[in-house]
């Protein structure tokens, strides 16, 4: 009974429900989290259950909202602030990086900021350049912050529950393209350890590292590769900051080949960090260069065909994988 | 130049064209031809034409995400607009921006913005340009009541007042920011007091009365041109959901029904008839012409072709400067035998 | 509890202690013992004690970068403060924060902030906590006139008013933000009108009169505790430069000389004497005690030891959770024969 | 006469002077850029020369200031907005990344934003966690933006002059620790091509890649290495976004070894991007792993000794270089 099929959206909602039930200090604050039920319906019904003092519809004041969450966290509440789109994070990077993330340090350990910032990103809805980004790299680069990005239904639940037990600020970035995805939620059994990656598919020929929606493209690519006799180890990075690279290195040292896949614009992305680390730590084990596959270095266009073209697909990952492992060049090779 | 006789009729025509356009946008979506569902209709807010008509050629503006009406008020070509909303190459932005990012340098449209409040400071910057160049132009920001809670608005107002810039802030208060009624988002509702406290000339006008809006806007635009920035709030009602998928379940149906009675197009039509500025036949012809025009815009958009895939790499940087390198080129360089030999 | 007889004297003592402390901070810098030169003295702003004395135990606050006086007003240990300013292990923040980031959970100091306006929303968050917990506490933000132009202030005010939170916004208007006099940064100077327009109870008080400040602050704190947030502005003058290296060449010397006549400490001292609440001997003793106390704080800070190098990796995350990996460990893991074999 | 010795600060000031003289559309806008002459004295005297309409002292309204610059750039001026510390960029990332950088794209090429954002970063003044950061990685990750970071007096002049000729937004990040540095300014001869790195010291054994103040630590390290018979090719990256990697690859393919040095917190830094690119493109040429040397993954502490310890030094770079090239482990090796 503790394991059942549900959606990514419902798993997050369940996590909020269970956490709020268990801890009366948890509050939600954000635009449209109450009456509207969340722009993507994640918080539906919570205001009816927990009232307007715990489920707080905020004005459109992102910097203020995150600042309020910081202050509430400093004084005893455990706020879950919601940023409707990660694209708006440029409005709150000061409160996030200079305030939430640095308070414990600047104040010599006296004042922690146990808050969660929930947001969602990614393409898939023709929402254009200001509503489709993948900006996790900015938060990867902030010491003092934690960053998790669930790719599965079970992780959607457990990473959020665990985030709500952390003494430090955690950013949880969901993916708008995953809300309707179905999967099994086992409320008693997380997919893996907090802070660690998870191997989603075992293989021996190449390691594919990804997270969030690109995990699913990577898994689909791994199927294609398997059809060609290439077995991929597919790792879900899940917890990006701080980044525990032990399991990553173990896998790459086994396979000798690695591809890192991100939906974000490639330059300066999480994929670059992972590739750089592998390059340092697995040098003697590598048979081939560590390949990065990411979004094009462009803003996201609104036109659906262009939008799809701007980010990696399972086909592209598989093509690159075949080329990397079997030296079989794709049709578009020069 | 405003002519007492024909101008109100012209304004009515523009309002009707906006209404018809927005209805066609809804249809575009239902036909599966829009780029996404982030379509925000300005039905109920057509009195904004009172402001756009108070601006003159060369004046510039920015809008929020619900800016179709404003742009039509400033002379947009509905076909190119619709094509943009459909994500087509023939659109105002080559299918890259869509409904929320329409712009047109030629008509002074400095851009619709999908960041609430994001476009507001741009008009202050435009005002700075006009002041420095002594060009006599004015720039106007159009935004919603939701943006009244964004800090950047007050930073913008303060700078405009401090530097006496030729700008006007136009809040289209449709009572809602998504599902949040304005009394649930603001500690105090008399927004023009805020503007006044920052040194602007502030006014709030009935959004069913386009002529009243026009009168106030004309004075404020003139004031702005003379270096006294202003604030005008149009008291309106958002007739439909926030975006195309939203059925406004959070609204009291009674309130909604009443709100829709506050129809600026219907009201203007009736007033014109009463004032004897047009008879039913004139008005019906205007309505029909608008419908025909917007039908054509819709068909144009549906028929138009999608942008070529390679165009996605264009316009990131100006032509003639370093351009983004497509991923396949990079992968090929790494993986092709040649370069690894 | 305020006692009409002794409280003004106690407030004078606190003001004098602040003045003496700040003078020693200047000395610390001249002796080359401060951590950097970003030292912002609150000399001339001591009437803020009227606000800190209106708060009670359990109330919390944040300050801007010029917050030494506020913190002393709330009971800080000057020796630990001075040690922090010197970047020493014995400081309030283990030598990690310095003058601009002093905090003390025990005394409700939620942190000084080096981002102008950065700490303001935190008191709104604290107010939310107090409301939800029905704890009866109040939270106060102290900031300068410069922060009046930061958008986040208005977002904070709006939320405080909207949710009826127990908070007070205290603007210490010392007429300057670095080299910019307030009339060169604000379009309209009646700041309390802004606060009122956002739904707060607003007041502006003469910053040479600590008792007047205290009276107004007491009423506003009480109002805040009852759910009506307030705004109080202390009209003061920044006696010296922005930070230690700044000699204020941008200020009119005459204005400066006049501004320094508006001395809250001197004024309070004279008023106490006139009111017969203290005689010259009492006051001289208080002054001497403050000097002695702050001399000791200075010596304590100079003598205190620097934090151990390894402490830099502590407090990034809470103990018991994943910690940052020192660079040398990483390099060693990559480069040592062992792991590359 | 066109080449003379001056400081980094004066070179920037000279660039502003010359540019404003040549182009009446250039305006400066920022906090304290006028009467005060800039927090670090860079704009001293300009308001007296060009008046308050072109040298604009702005209120403390960072998001608004950058937004105003965007609007002014859209309508015909060429604004140089100043952000006093790059640490405040969290306040303006929306205007920078969502507005300035994306306008040309979103609007289909119609509206460019030819503005410059000048700011400065880095450690060295015990200015603590909110006034000492190196946040260029956030701007590296924004397509549509250009990013340059001058390390020399000549570049301080020329990169800014060139930035002021660009049709798109350029962020120029200076280093607070370099303002008093002396060097030769040749107003007729830039150090290198716009958009390209420059080789600051030629060598054959290892490539050291860095930028801004770390270039000087790298050059000092190269001296130490030379004393041990190791010749380093030291490359100044200068223009980080877009990043032209041709010269980088050429050097590494020659030397077979690379170290990338940054002052920023290492994880998610520019150094990671460079290392990842080298790992992809120079794999067959590499003798050793590409080593990243960066700031510790911590906020910057105020205490001077801790502050110094938090970022790389010439000594550390040299030690790592010796270890990398000659397998000579430093004293702190395990
Ligand atoms: C910075 C930012 N915050 C939130 C959103 C999501 N959002 C889009 S429209 C909207 C409501 C805006 O309300 P209002 O300003 O009144 O404009 P209206 O939709 O009523 O025309 C919200 C919250 C956004 N796009 N940008
Ligand atoms: C966000 C931000 N912008 C700019 C600065 C630089 N700065 C530090 S203090 C200051 C002036 C602040 O003036 P005010 O708020 O009046 O405080 P005062 O120094 O007068 O006490 C400025 C501009 C900063 N620290 N943070
Ligand atoms: Mg609205
Ligand atoms: Mg001040």
Automatic annotation (TrEMBL), chains A, D:
SUPFAM superfamilies: Thiamin diphosphate-binding fold (THDP-binding), TK C-terminal domain-like. Gene3D superfamilies: 3.40.50.920, 3.40.50.970. Its cofactor is thiamine diphosphate. Keywords: Oxidoreductase, Thiamine pyrophosphate. CDD domains: TPP_PYR_E1-PDHc-beta_like. Pfam families: Transket_pyr, Transketolase_C. It comes from the Bacteria. GO terms for molecular function: oxidoreductase activity. The lineage of its organism: Bacteria, Pseudomonadati, Pseudomonadota, Alphaproteobacteria, Rhodobacterales. The keyword Oxidoreductase applies. Residues 6-181 form the Transketolase-like pyrimidine-binding domain. PANTHER family: PYRUVATE DEHYDROGENASE E1 COMPONENT BETA SUBUNIT (PTHR43257), PYRUVATE DEHYDROGENASE E1 COMPONENT SUBUNIT BETA (PTHR43257:SF2). SMART domains: Transket_pyr (SM00861). The keyword ATP-binding does not apply. This is Transketolase central region.
UniProtKB/TrEMBL annotation, chains B, C:
Keywords: Oxidoreductase, Thiamine pyrophosphate. It comes from the Bacteria. Its cofactor is thiamine diphosphate. Pfam families: E1_dh. CDD domains: TPP_E1_PDC_ADC_BCADC. Coiled coil: none annotated. GO terms for biological process: pyruvate decarboxylation to acetyl-CoA. It catalyses: N(6)-[(R)-lipoyl]-L-lysyl-[protein] + pyruvate + H(+) = N(6)-[(R)-S(8)-acetyldihydrolipoyl]-L-lysyl-[protein] + CO2. The pyruvate dehydrogenase complex catalyzes the overall conversion of pyruvate to acetyl-CoA and CO(2). It contains multiple copies of three enzymatic components: pyruvate dehydrogenase (E1), dihydrolipoamide acetyltransferase (E2) and lipoamide dehydrogenase (E3). This is Dehydrogenase E1 component.
């Amino acid at each position: 009974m503790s394991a059942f099929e549900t959606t990514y959206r419902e798993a997050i909602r369940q996590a909020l429900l269970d956490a709020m039930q268990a801890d009366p200090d948890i509050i939600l604050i954000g635009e449209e989290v109450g009456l509207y039920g969340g722009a993507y319906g994640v918080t539906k019904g919570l205001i009816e259950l927990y009232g307007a003092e715990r489920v707080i519809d905020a004005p459109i004041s992102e910097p203020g909202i995150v600042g309020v969450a910081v202050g509430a966290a400093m004084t005893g509440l455990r706020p879950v602030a919601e940023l409707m789109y990660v694209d708006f994070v440029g409005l709150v990077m000061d409160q996030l990086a200079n305030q939430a993330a640095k308070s414990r340090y600047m104040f010599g350990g006296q004042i922690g900021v146990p808050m969660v910032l929930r947001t969602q990103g990614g393409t898939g809805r023709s929402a254009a350049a200001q509503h489709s980004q993948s900006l996790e790299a900015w938060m990867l680069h902030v010491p003092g912050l934690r960053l998790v990005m669930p790719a599965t239904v079970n992780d959607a639940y457990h990473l959020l529950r665990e985030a709500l037990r952390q003494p430090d600020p955690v950013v949880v970035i969901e993916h708008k393209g995953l809300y309707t995805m179905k999967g099994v939620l086992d409320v008693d059994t997380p997919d893996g350890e907090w802070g660690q990656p998870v191997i989603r598919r075992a293989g021996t020929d190449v390691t594919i590292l990804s997270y969030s929606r690109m995990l699913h493209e990577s898994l689909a690519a791994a199927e294609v590769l398997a059809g060609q006799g290439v077995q991929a180890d597919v790792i879900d990075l899940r917890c990006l900051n701080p980044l525990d690279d032990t399991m990553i290195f173990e896998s790459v040292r086994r396979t000798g080949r690695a591809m890192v896949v991100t939906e974000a614009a490639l330059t300066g992305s999480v994929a670059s960090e992972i590739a750089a680390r592998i390059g340092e730590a697995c040098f003697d084990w590598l048979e081939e260069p560590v390949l990065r596959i990411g979004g094009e270095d462009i803003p996201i266009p609104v036109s659906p065909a262009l939008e799809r073209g701007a980010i990696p697909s399972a086909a592209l990952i598989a093509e690159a994988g075949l080329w990397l492992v079997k030296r079989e060049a794709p049709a578009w090779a020069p | 130049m405003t002519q007492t006789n024909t101008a109100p009729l012209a304004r009515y025509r523009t309002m009707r064209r906006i209404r018809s356009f927005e209805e066609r946008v809804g249809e575009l979506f239902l036909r599966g031809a829009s780029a996404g569902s982030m379509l925000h209709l300005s039905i109920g807010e057509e009195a904004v034409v009172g402001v756009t008509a108070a601006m003159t050629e060369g004046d510039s503006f920015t809008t929020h995400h619900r800016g179709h009406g404003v742009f039509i008020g400033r002379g947009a070509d509905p076909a190119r607009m619709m094509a943009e909303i459909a994500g087509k190459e023939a659109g105002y932005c080559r299918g890259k921006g869509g409904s929320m990012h329409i712009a047109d340098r030629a008509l002074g449209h400095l851009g619709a913005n999908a960041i609430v409040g994001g476009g507001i400071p741009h008009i202050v910057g435009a005002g700075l340009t006009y002041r420095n160049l002594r060009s006599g132009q004015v720039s106007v920001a159009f935004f919603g009541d939701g943006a009244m809670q964004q800090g950047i608005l007050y930073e913008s107002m303060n700078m405009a007042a401090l530097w006496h810039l030729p700008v006007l802030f136009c809040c289209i208060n449709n009572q809602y920011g998504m599902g949040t009624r304005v009394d649930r988002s603001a500690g105090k509702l008399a927004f023009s007091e805020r503007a006044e406290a920052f040194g602007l000339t502030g006014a709030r006008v009935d959004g069913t009365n386009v002529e009243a809006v026009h009168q106030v806007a004309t004075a404020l635009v003139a004031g702005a041109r003379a270096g006294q920035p202003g604030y005008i709030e149009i008291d309106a009602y958002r007739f439909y959901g926030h975006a195309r998928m939203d059925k406004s379940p959070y609204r009291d149906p009674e309130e909604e029904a009443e709100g829709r009675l506050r129809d600026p197009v219907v009201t203007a039509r009736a007033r014109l008839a009463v004032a004897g500025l047009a008879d039913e036949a004139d008005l019906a012809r205007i309505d029909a012409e608008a419908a025909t025009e917007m039908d054509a815009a819709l068909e144009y958009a549906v028929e138009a072709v999608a942008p070529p895939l390679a165009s996605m790499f264009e316009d990131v940087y100006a032509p003639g400067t370093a351009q983004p390198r497509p991923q396949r080129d990079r992968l090929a360089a790494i993986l092709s035998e040649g370069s690894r030999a």
